[in-house]
Amino acid sequence: MSKKVQAIYLWWHKSVIDQELLQSLPNLKVIANSGVGMDHLDLKLVASFGVKVANAPCDVSGSTADTEVALLLASARRLVEGYHVAISSGMEYCEADFLGVEVTGATLRINGTGSIGYKIALRAKAFEMNILYHNRTWRKEQEEQAVGTTYCKKIDSLLQKADFVMVVVSLTPLTDELIGKREMELMKPAATLSNISRGTIQNCPATALQTGVIRAAALEVTYPEPLPRLPSLLITLLKLENIIITPHLSIKTGKATYMITEEAAENILAALNGLPIPSEVLPS
User: Which of 21, 104, 159, 203 is the most exposed place for a label (fewest CB within 10 A)?
Assistant: First the structure.
């Protein structure tokens, strides 16, 4: 059976592509990934077996931006906590001190304004937020004016006055552990950290959340995914009320999934027919 396999379609980073698997599939021609991020693949190892790799960079930035804004709102207004209060036994009224924070007019710092970060800014404009951003390059002036955002050269400047800090960057050696203990201590005690990039970009914020260094966190990604149900995590991070964790839902809509799968199929068909692969990814 293994000799018949010519293509692998990866969904949710499954199966694990290692040397043992590659050696067992002598006729494998292409691995098509269901998304943009490739940090789960050893591209040089795959290439050494003569196998090509493709990702699916179709425009699902709108779906991802929607998810990030949903996390911001849910964290700010404590919607998950409120749900549990509403359905709890014997609930007669909501405590007067069950308070969230305002989103309208708040200061939002976006670290990373590629297509996803920029669409988040577009949505944040509707909430009349004060939007600052940090990116490898400045956005064009007309793009900044369209969302009313201002460029910050240094990431520290983004952190110190933000009510909400969003991390929307690709995982690279430069961004790995981008937000750690020092960066969280720069943030306001009333600030919320949100990460929709990769789990290793921020160190686990459990201590910062427990000690009041920051108000809350909303994480669409973790490391590892899913988080192991270890006693230490169950006692700390997974029991905290001021954190929301979602299982990488950003592209989990019917439309986005269809677009990604269609693009992966096009990449596979091109490889099997000896044609240029539309979204081929080469090892750096």
Answer: 104
